[in-house]
């Protein structure tokens, strides 16, 4: 949030947690799915997400 850009930093062990927050209907689930596929392709990690 804001004008700064930063890289994702993955932990050496354990999961890396990415929090997506937003109002209803803004596309959080879609972004989460696209991000999971992108990261899987980029770094060959298995990705999953929990929706609440």
From TrEMBL:
<dbReference type="InterPro" id="IPR000897">
    <property type="entry name" value="SRP54_GTPase_dom"/>
</dbReference>
<dbReference type="InterPro" id="IPR027417">
    <property type="entry name" value="P-loop_NTPase"/>
</dbReference>
<keyword id="KW-0547">Nucleotide-binding</keyword>
<dbReference type="GO" id="GO:0006614">
    <property type="term" value="P:SRP-dependent cotranslational protein targeting to membrane"/>
</dbReference>
<feature type="domain" description="SRP54-type proteins GTP-binding">
    <location>
        <begin position="15"/>
        <end position="42"/>
    </location>
</feature>
<keyword id="KW-0342">GTP-binding</keyword>
<dbReference type="Pfam" id="PF00448">
    <property type="entry name" value="SRP54"/>
</dbReference>
<protein>
    <submittedName>
        <fullName>Si496035e06</fullName>
    </submittedName>
</protein>
<dbReference type="GO" id="GO:0005525">
    <property type="term" value="F:GTP binding"/>
</dbReference>
């Amino acid at each position: 949030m804001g004008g700064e850009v930063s890289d994702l930093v993955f932990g050496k062990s354990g999961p890396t947690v990415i929090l997506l927050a937003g109002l209803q209907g803004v596309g959080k689930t879609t972004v989460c799915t696209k991000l999971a596929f992108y990261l899987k392709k980029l770094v060959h990690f298995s990705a999953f997400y929990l929706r609440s």
